């Protein structure tokens, strides 16, 4: 027997198996959290997420030390998935107005089925600054398409459309289960106001509030 035969064998398969288990556990936690957050909102007890994912609390906390860490991960995934789908839908729609209105419809329909997403959207606008930047750039693209086609009311800005999206998200949250279709009425009213046939000048938005001044 050679010295090579007598050397201590390495054990990469065991380490790879542990890494694979950890990755599966993380994926299971995120998947379960996505469902639970959508059903019950941001205030859900993480013990329910651990139960549905089939892991212990220790495992959950090893991957996500706080519920906020887990919520941010899940919401960024949901937000990115929604924005990707919105891009694809807009690219497949030739009519600029249909692309814009379809964006609002898709956004609110998605939020109507996800409590945590609408809570996050109305509270902060997006789960992360980078997510908000991508969303705003996409909304600007939709706005420019409508402007170039002469379909958007004069003076409507990207900031107006972003704020409208956030405001309608609050309507989704307010309507909740009591009046689940109410937001669709408000959406239609809002979209009618964006059309170019409305020629009355819009009020000036006014100066931005100084964030350094306390109320």
UniProtKB/TrEMBL annotation:
Alphabetized InterPro entries for the sequence: Homeodomain-like_sf, HTH-type_TetR-like_transc_reg, HTH_TetR, Tet_transcr_reg_TetR-rel_C_sf, TetR_SbtR-like_C
The keyword Transcription is annotated on this UniProt entry: yes
UniProt DNA-binding region: 45-64
Region (Disordered): 1-22, 194-215
Cross-referenced Pfam families: TetR_C_43, TetR_N
This protein's UniProt keywords: DNA-binding, Transcription, Transcription regulation
Gene3D superfamilies attached to this UniProt entry: Tetracycline Repressor, domain 2
Superkingdom of this protein's organism: Bacteria
Protein name as annotated: Helix-turn-helix transcriptional regulator
């Amino acid at each position: 027997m050679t010295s090579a035969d007598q050397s201590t064998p390495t054990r990469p398969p065991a380490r790879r198996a542990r890494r694979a288990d950890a990755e599966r556990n993380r994926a299971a936690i995120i998947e379960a959290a996505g469902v639970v957050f959508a059903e019950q909102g941001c205030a859900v007890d993480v013990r329910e997420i651990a139960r549905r994912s089939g892991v212990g609390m220790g495992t959950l906390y090893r991957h996500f030390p706080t519920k906020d860490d887990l919520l941010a991960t899940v919401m960024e995934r949901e937000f990115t998935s929604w924005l990707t789908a919105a891009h694809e839908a807009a690219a497949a729609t030739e009519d600029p107005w249909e692309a814009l209105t379809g964006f609002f419809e898709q956004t609110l329909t998605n939020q109507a089925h996800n409590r945590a997403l609408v809570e996050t959207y109305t509270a902060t606008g997006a789960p992360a600054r980078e997510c908000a930047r991508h969303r705003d750039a996409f909304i600007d693209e939709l706005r420019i398409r409508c402007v170039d086609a002469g379909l958007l009311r004069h003076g409507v800005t990207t900031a107006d459309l972003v704020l409208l999206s956030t405001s309608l998200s609050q309507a989704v949250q307010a309507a909740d289960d009591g009046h689940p279709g109410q937001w669709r009425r408000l959406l239609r009213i809002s979209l009618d106001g964006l059309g170019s046939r409305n020629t009355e000048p819009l009020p000036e938005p006014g100066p931005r509030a100084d964030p350094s001044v306390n109320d």
